[in-house]
Amino acid sequence: MKIVAICGAKQSGKxxxxxxILEALTQNGYLxxxxxxxxxxxxxxxxxxxxxxxxxxxxxKGNYQIGENTISGKALEKSVETVLRVNNDRLSxxxxxxxxFSFKAFxxxxxxxxxxxxxxxxxxxxxxxxxxxxxxxVKVKRDTxxxxxxxxxxxxxxxxxxxxxxxxxxxxxxxEKIAHELLPRIEDFSDSTV
Length: 194
Description:
Layout: E1 2-8, H1 14-27, E2 31-35, H2 39-49, H3 56-61, E3 63-66, E4 69-72, H4 73-87, H5 91-106, E5 114-121, H6 124-132, E6 136-141, E7 163-166, H7 171-188
Parallel strand pairs: 1-5, 1-6, 2-5, 6-7
Antiparallel strand pairs: 3-4
């Protein structure tokens, strides 16, 4: 089983690239699954604030009274993530590992044609986990991506990526790059040790 993790600056197209990789792999007969390191934040937020999965995006768009302060849902999510990461920086990794172990348990016969894509590689501990477990790191570069100097995420250019994909043209060109350049690299990449 192979694992691919997608990194890149904010608004570089990580989620788009992850989804197009999954589509291309599925069309080529692979069993696929997508995970996010940040899922633990969403799950914690839904539990803390009693939000249903289908209502989560609307929750993030709202404003909430916390004591005497009003805070946006997105800022609230960032605050919760910071507190969770400070108290246990392995939460994001454990959540993904649990998902991978479940995937492997239910798909034992198909693991040689399975690829997991993690769509949001953003922090140093996640990069270290990827390198330790032979996860292929794909960096998405886009000229209009946003670098937020106040964000604790890594500067992805500081880390070695196994493949860099430029996302500066139309979606058709991106799909062709994935099919003709990236998929062969994924197929040749060694299996993950997770």
